[in-house]
Amino acid sequence: MNLQGIVAVSGKPGLWRALAQNKTGYVLESLDAQKTKLVANLSTAKLAALSEITIFGTEDDIRLTDVFEQMKSASKVPDAKADGKTLRAFFYEVAPEHDEEKVYASDMKKIISWFHLLKELPLFDEVDPTQAPAPEAPVAEVVAAEPELVAEAPKAKAKKAPAKKA
């Protein structure tokens, strides 16, 4: 899944696609049906790239993209407005190592609502360019090259020392 350029803006609902950057911030477009445009000022708004977000885990943090991959293969994803027990049971299915004390019901609701926004978009099925394996380069044949003649550069003339006047 390719989540490059998808951000969450603090204080704004939904997800946004970064379209351009100017000297004061970013020009964003909402991923919902309205396609609202927004200029997020870097000095006042906090942006979080979805590809960089992690969830608290019991041992290590869990990448949000890994949770989305598990949610993709889950049999049924609950609605974001479901009760906390239903959400917690679902999260144990898709992220069994999440920290129950640090991951709140509001966090789970937000992640599930993001999933429902993203699952219909084509970028959700694209391969992440940062995670894609590099294509194997064909093995080049070794050809014995003939030695090249190297022309010597002309030597610079030595400067004469100025003559001393007697």
Word description of this protein:
The longest helix has 14 residues, at 105-118. A hairpin with a 6-residue loop joins strand 1 (6-9) and strand 2. The protein starts with 5 loop residues before the first strand and ends in a 48-residue tail after the last helix. The chain has a 5-stranded antiparallel beta sheet with strand order 4-3-2-1-5, with no helix packed on it. A two-stranded antiparallel ribbon has the order 6-7. It has helices at 64-73, 84-94, 105-118; strands at 6-9, 16-21, 25-30, 37-41, 47-49, 54-55, 62-63. The chain is elongated. It is built from 3 helices and 7 strands. With 166 residues, the chain is α+β, with helices and mostly antiparallel strands. Residues 134-150 have low confidence and may be disordered. The protein has one domain (6-124): Arc Repressor Mutant, subunit A, CATH 1.10.10. It comes from Mucilaginibacter dorajii. Residues 3-50 form the DUF5606 domain. InterPro entries: BVU_3817-like_C_sf (IPR049281), BVU_3817_N_sf (IPR049282), DUF5606 (IPR041218), DUF6852 (IPR049280). This is DUF5606 domain-containing protein. Residues 53-118 form the DUF6852 domain.
